[in-house]
Amino acid sequence: MLQDWPPSALFQATPPFCDLHVDLMSATPVPGFTRSDGRFNVASYTPKGDAKSDLGPKMYSATKDNENVGSTKIHKDVTDAWNVLTYASPADKGADWVLFSRKDTVRVVKWLQTKLDCEGDPVHHQQTFLTQADLADLWGELKIRPYLINQTLNQFVFIPAGCAHQVRLCEGCSVCQYQSHICSLSVYYHIPGEQPRGLYQSRM
User: Fold this and answer.
1) Contact 185/91 with Cβ under 8 angstroms?
2) End-to-end Cα separation, the chain, in angstroms
3) Rounded distance, CA 67 to CA 133, Å?
4) pLDDT band at 106 (very low <50, low <70, confident <90, very high)
5) Name one GO biological process term (predicted).
6) How many helices (H) and strands (E) does the chain have?
7) Using the 8-state DSSP alphabet, how is residue 16 labeled?
8) Residue 99 C-alpha from the chain's centroid
9) Radius of gyration (C-alpha) of the chain in whole angstroms
10) Where are the domains of the chain?
């Protein structure tokens, strides 16, 4: 998987991505909140310069998850984010997202610590992918049920800060061993105040 690309440069200053940046920002839903210059985005009021955090966009590219180990392991972000699926091969259904509410994320961390017999935050370590059996155990033991979203081409998924989530590229419709490919973009943003715990999906 190619993750957080470009790794050490701004997306909007790196060819060929710089040519796409204006169009991408123009297509961003709820632009006042989600664009880097949105008037409700706290990040737009931070000082300009090298010390400013790079909130994206960043590109992620992955092949189909044939081994059921996850295209992106379970993790959480310190800021709100949106992700748009910009490419998927014709045989693909897109990407499957598993997202936990912020309050359930705390319980999931404790459950994983017991299950994996580990110290620290296993979600922060980004080394674990929850299988369907794990999700069934979470429901059976703690009555925790995540939000499940199937993201298809050109759809946006919004991820609130602090919500644990993982992603798996779906199986192809017809040929299971077909090595398909997806490309997505993520942008991070800061919204003042407590955020709603709902998770939203929007079409580009």
Assistant:
1) no
2) 24
3) 15
4) very high
5) regulation of transcription by RNA polymerase II
6) 5, 10
7) T
8) 9
9) 17
10) 2-203
User: Cβ of 93: how many Cβ atoms within 10 Å?
Assistant: 16
User: Is 2-203 CATH 3.40.50.970?
Assistant: no
Query: pLDDT tens across 6-19, in order?
Result: 777 787 888 887 88
What tokens were used for 51? Answer: 């010390």
pTM equals 0.79
Model confidence at 196: pLDDT above 50 = no
Question: Quick check: 188 and 80 in contact, CB under 8 A?
Answer: yes
What one-letter code names the amino acid at 141?
E
What's the chain's length in residues? 204
Residue 68 CB contacts under 8 Å (≥ 6 apart), including other chains: 129, 131, 168
- Whether the per-residue pLDDT at 203 is higher than 50: the answer is no
d(CA 188, CA 55): 5
Q: Which tens digits make up the pLDDT trace of 128-170?
A: 999 999 999 999 999 999 999 998 888 888 888 899 999 987 7
| C-alpha count within 13 angstroms, C-beta hemisphere, residue 175 | 7
Contact 189, 55 (CB under 8 A): yes
